[in-house]
């Protein structure tokens, strides 16, 4: 058995039925315990988001809007372009339906993560607000659970170098070489310099870059995707019907046993959905813990918008574009499938995908650098921050120049392992989340009367 075979087997176990059931089950449990409030308060979340573009009205290091943009910088990435295409290519159009399902319950998971992150956050030796699963495990569950927080921090710090760094710079290098003929060596050097210039400024610089790049690129990508759907508008009703039909039938993978086909649609839809929006992984609450806010619940309603924007809006546009153009039934795989879909409807559609992939991957490197840095600081203290940033910049260059098939699988495994400590903590702290939520909205109701 080769190393790749072994890693593939481990990945299939980590992202197998038990993990998917844990992720979906936790989200569903939280949604029901919160009485569907995350879904009912999406409009309220957007209102609070726009109010928090300048200041959140509380202690913190970055605005609530900047916290969401920082978390989106890490989630909107290759998963929205290559990940969606991979899910549909392997699980059929029905995989998009299961991505939607994972996102709907993931909204509750992301909400609970942010509530816990702000409620249990600390201020480190440098005066920076720090938080995330390792902190709400330590401060919320007590000493007997310290090992679980440390376990998350180890998985988070290591996973970042793969899924949030090397594979992202590799994607950028490949896209620029294939589309524009730019040498991977040039890409490696330029990206190392650009990432280094941002990381010098810490979370405030990362948030500043994210608040400019993420909304701009996301809006441009959404407009281009809607243009593809407009060109193929007559095929859109049939495509949507195919998504629902394929979610429960053998047509999801072009025939075969119905049970097997449905399981493939569920497996790849949920796994790629979580890979894209990161609900349950525990990464996003690390960014939201730095937000200027006077209420964990208020920041939670903003944080949950990340899952809605990432999957319900952006992934849906990518997926439907692939289906209405018929690209899902062609020979192209991964990002090339998305390129084929856009190119069939728009002039330079493949170039749009390449540029989008590059910008999204670059912001993902920035967002994950902060996540990994906070995990490393939790384990080793503030003294590790500068060495960590130097190593992070070095891996950007290595990733751009290397073949990363094994790294992809290792990162996928570590990503899944991150979720386990986080989901256990969310289940154990669900009562705290429910209590804080009830108190906050009861106060809101009284103030409005």
Order of helices and strands: HHHHHHHEEHHHHHHHHHHHHHH
Oligomer: single chain
By DSSP (H or I, 4+ residues per run), the number of helices equals 21
How many angstroms separate the termini?
68 Å
Task: Please tell me the overall pLDDT.
Answer: 87
Q: Report strand order across the widest sheet.
A: 1-2
Secondary structural class: mainly alpha
Q: What portion of the residues fall into strands of 2 or more residues?
A: under 5%
In total, the number of strands is 2
Shape by Cα distribution: globular
Low-confidence stretches: 252-258
Helix content: over 70%
Radius of gyration based on Cα positions: 21 Å
Largest sheet: 2 strands, antiparallel
Written overview of the protein:
The protein is mostly helical. 78% of the residues lie in helices and 1% in strands. The chain contains 21 helices and two strands. Strands 1-2 form a two-stranded antiparallel ribbon. Helix 5 crosses helix 18 (349-380). The longest helix is centred in the middle third of the chain and has 35 residues, at 146-180. It is globular. The chain starts with a helix and ends with a helix.
Layout: helices, strands, pairs:
Blueprint: H1 3-14, H2 17-33, H3 37-40, H4 42-51, H5 64-75, H6 78-91, H7 94-119, E1 122-123, E2 129-130, H8 133-141, H9 146-180, H10 184-199, H11 202-231, H12 236-246, H13 258-277, H14 284-288, H15 296-303, H16 305-324, H17 335-345, H18 349-380, H19 385-401, H20 405-428, H21 430-448
Antiparallel strand pairs: 1-2
